[in-house]
Amino acid sequence: MAIDLGVVLTLLLVVGFLAQWLAWRLRLPAILFLLLIGIVLGPATGLFDPDRQLGAFLFPCVSLAVALILFEGSLTLRFSELRGIGHEVRGMVSYGAVLALVMLAAAAHWIAGVGWPIAFLFGALTCVTGPTVITPMLRTLRPNARIASALRWEGIVLDPLGALFAVLVFEAILSHQEGHSLAVFAATIGIGAGIGLAVAAALGFLLYRQMIPEYLQAYGTLIAVLGAFTLSNKLAHESGLVAVTITGITLGNLRHIHIDDIMDFKEHLSTLLVSLLFVVLAARLHWPLPPGMLMAGVLVFVVAQFAIRPLSVFAATLGGGMNWRERALIGFVSPRGIVAASVSSLFALRLGELGMRGADALVPLVFILIIATVVLQSATARPLARWLKVADPDPDGLLIFGSDEVARSIGKALAEQDFKVLLADDDWDGISKARMEGLATFFGNPTSQHAALHLDLTGIGRLLAMSKRRELNSLACMHYRQEFGRERVYRLRVLAPENASNRVALAGRLRAKALFGNNMTHTRFAELLQAGWRIKSNVLTDTFGWPEFLAQHGADAVLVFGIEPNGRLRVVSNRRKTGPRTGWTVIALVPPVQEGRMEAAAA
């Protein structure tokens, strides 16, 4: 019985959402669940046949979805960031990636028996890792800062560069397959690059001149990208992917234009498209696989995991500052992601139409590698990091949402006690002052999709929401409650309890523990700082306990943190009374020194 297309699309959206939600709950890359669900619905049970139920819509929809995914990925590449990523990462995204590509191509050719053109295309697609698979893995892996930074930057930089390289390899194969000369290949690349540059320049001009209203900018960008893809394909066959990749890289590096809202929209759209696309693509896999393909795919994975990745990382990091333990863990962690799955399927569809020998082996090999790397590394990377002694201990750092004087004073007090502190805010003035004061910062809303990909939470396990914006504080607490746990998120009140009537009071599930007791608010804290109050820390001893501290600094002093002798941080809140003890280091907000107290302390 034929099923209505609208019902099919609705069910795909529901299934995609459930896969994304499950991945969020289990802190695993969503691509794993999307592919597994697609395999169950398609080849395993036969409940969903994309070719039959989507019909003529299949290839155009896949093509447009891949174009938007490539554009969104390439939009994140900043050439200015390439200069500051360190010796190891530069090696990993340059000659290390090329070495991995060549070795992966050789493995596909000699183990799976595919021709060299398909083998090199396989190598180009699978030599990259992406932020969508690395980021959730790092949150459970929790390696030291150098390893986390190297893996994160490798994914961010290689994602668009790998996509561009794969497109170039595909164009070369296609040009040769259709009997075109090198000049035709060069013309295809040139037309695609030219249209990409032109569209990016035109769109950048319109955005800079404010000729597109803000609420239409994301819509206009979507139209421009799809228009570039379609126009480029009409002028030069199969050049559209080059055009959208160049458009994204160029637009992302234009100065004096703000694309944050566009990036947010594209990230949300990309999540939707990925959820649909991967279920559809996995459902198209034919089962059983061609004879010997499963075994060949497993052997390629074993070689890629235990030989190719370690060798390429060893070569790329040679002469750097990392020790062998750090290089060993980096050489183990290399999950494949969105670019490999989506682009390989599109290429296989196109090459299959041309009757190219071995094209049907591309997708199974890529999907086996994706599933195997994600499953193995998600299950074993954390124990391996502990065995190598490169895993961070239980995270005791703090993420502070806010960058005004209150947040900065708390951040400096904690940083002076050797706690890792990161201030995150979208207020550039406050972030600039925090940087000048030597604090680590993240410019952006910590609850955004951009933060999900770029905010490095290595070593951080608590949230202090201390901005002036009450609703955003609550949103941050809800967001990071899933990351850190309910007991490790705190907020500084904006309204005093007596001023928060039932009409403005937040619902219980939106609340978090109030910092520094019920009576402390952001306004009061700021006023005390303006009045000369300062944050003071002292170690309590048998002869100088908490009562003596109050006698010296004033009975009005407000305890804000306590540090136990073992280094554990106690955060003062309205839910738990903190009684400082001998051996603790207390951090308190104390009033200005008065002459009478100075004389009493001297006596």
In CATH terms, what is the architecture of the largest domain?
Up-down Bundle
Strand line-up in the sheet with most strands:
3-2-1-4-5-6
Derived from helix and strand composition plus strand pairing, the structural class reads alpha/beta
Unreliable stretches, pLDDT < 50, 5 or more residues? none
The helix fraction, in percent, is 55-70%
User: How many strand segments?
Assistant: 10
CATH level 1 class label of the largest domain? Mainly Alpha
Domains (count): 2
CATH topology of the largest domain: Na+/H+ antiporter like fold
Average residue-wise pLDDT: 80
Report the radius of gyration as a whole number of Å.
Answer: 27 Å
Strand content: 5-15%
User: What's the number of helices?
Assistant: 25
- Straight-line N-to-C gap: 95 Å
Which shape, going by the Cα principal axes?
elongated
- Quick one: biggest sheet? 6 strands, parallel
Describe this structure in words.
It is a single chain. By secondary structure, the chain is an alpha/beta fold. The chain has two domains: 60-388, Na+/H+ antiporter like fold, CATH 1.20.1530.20; 397-602, 3-Layer(aba) Sandwich (Rossmann fold). 61% of the residues lie in helices and 8% in strands. It has helices spanning 5-26, 30-44, 50-54, 58-74, 79-82, 86-92, 95-111, 116-126, 131-141, 145-177, 182-208, 214-235, 240-253, 260-283, 293-316, 324-330, 338-353, 362-388, 405-415, 428-436, 449-454, 470-484, 522-530, 546-553, 595-602; strands at residues 397-401, 421-425, 440-443, 460-465, 489-491, 513-514, 534-539, 558-563, 569-571, 585-590. The chain has a six-stranded parallel β-sheet with strand order 3-2-1-4-5-6, with helices on both faces. Strand 8 (558-563) and strand 9 form a beta hairpin. Helix 10 crosses helix 11 (182-208), helix 14 (260-283) crosses helix 17 and helix 16 (324-330) packs antiparallel against helix 18. The longest helix has 33 residues, at 145-177. The radius of gyration is 27 Å and the shape is elongated. The model has no long low-confidence stretch (mean pLDDT 80).
